[in-house]
Amino acid sequence: MNTFKILGAVCLIAFSSCKAQKNAIVAHRGAWKKNNLPENSIASLRHAIDLKLPGSEFDVWRTADDSLVINHDAHYNKLLIEETNYADLIKFKLSNGEKLPTLYEYISEGMRNNKHTLLVCEIKPSEISKERGQKTGVAAVETITKLKANKNTCYISFDYDILKKIREIDPKTSLQYLEGNKSPKEVKADKINGVDFHYSVFQKHPEWIKEAKDNKILLNAWTVNDAAVMDWLIDQKFNYITTNEPELLSERLKAKK
């Protein structure tokens, strides 16, 4: 059995609540790089699901007219998403001809023929105000709940207050903090159950790895594209490793067996 299938089977066991796993691959903005697909596209999500990867990450913004859309940067085709209506954004296609996907469309696709891949939803901090970012987080949870995808989704953000707001409205969902400026004990105190930091943060604070494990805080690292860093994280038994190179990470996992 290949590593993707093994990890997919592991993820299926823990799928409903994003429980502790070991070295599970999360495709950063979908599985896009090898096949030159647009990042955060429906196609990159579908490819991650078809590979049976344990997770696929994507980024959420809210437009001026309150549409939730999937894009990494604050701007799309030089338009600031938060100050632009959705109809004006979709005049510009992605490189594969797709239109800019809405969260509703993205989650709908993520639920189709998917028994393995966790949907890792990053709520982007607002460029306008803290309050707007929190409202975007709430709106995203409402959309995902409407689609009955709660058990298939976890939430991550660089904005700590967005995660705390999500926790207020959903006491059970899995939350992971991205910024890297709080210890595992600190996030646990606020009922956030995961740290998803740049790998260099863990290299600077290796004591946080043990602290997270001792406090049952999920460990995730981004964005890991170097084989040597992958090997170090695999040896540390992280729960998740987020990468633009899922195929390379799969090879490293097989080499470690």
TrEMBL record:
SUPFAM superfamilies: PLC-like phosphodiesterases. It comes from the Bacteria. Residues 23-253 form the GP-PDE domain. Gene3D superfamilies: Phosphatidylinositol (PI) phosphodiesterase (3.20.20.190). This is Glycerophosphodiester phosphodiesterase. It comes from Flavobacterium endoglycinae. The lineage of its organism: Bacteria, Pseudomonadati, Bacteroidota, Flavobacteriia, Flavobacteriales.
